[in-house]
User: What shape does this take?
Amino acid sequence: MANHKSAIKRARQNIVREGRNRSIKTSIKNVMKRVLEAVDEKSKDKASDALVKAQSVIDKASKRGVIHKRSASRKISRLTNRVNKIATT
Assistant: This one.
């Protein structure tokens, strides 16, 4: 356990940030799952709407530093490719 006053405060801040980051990461997983479910149903409209929402959530997480910029870009790219595949078929 931390002994110095500044270290105790840092430990408190880490707990708060950890909870916030976990919540944001969970929301990323949920929006990605909605896109993939729409793709499995082959519903073009539903998938494209879910993709727009997912892009927003992932970009915000990246901007806040919860996930890396390249990780966010990779997730969006993979989801977009999936949605585009059903749009062409």
User: Anything to note?
Assistant: The longest helix spans residues 5-40. The chain has a mean pLDDT of 94. Residues 6 and 12 are 10 Å apart (CA to CA). The chain has three helices and no strands.
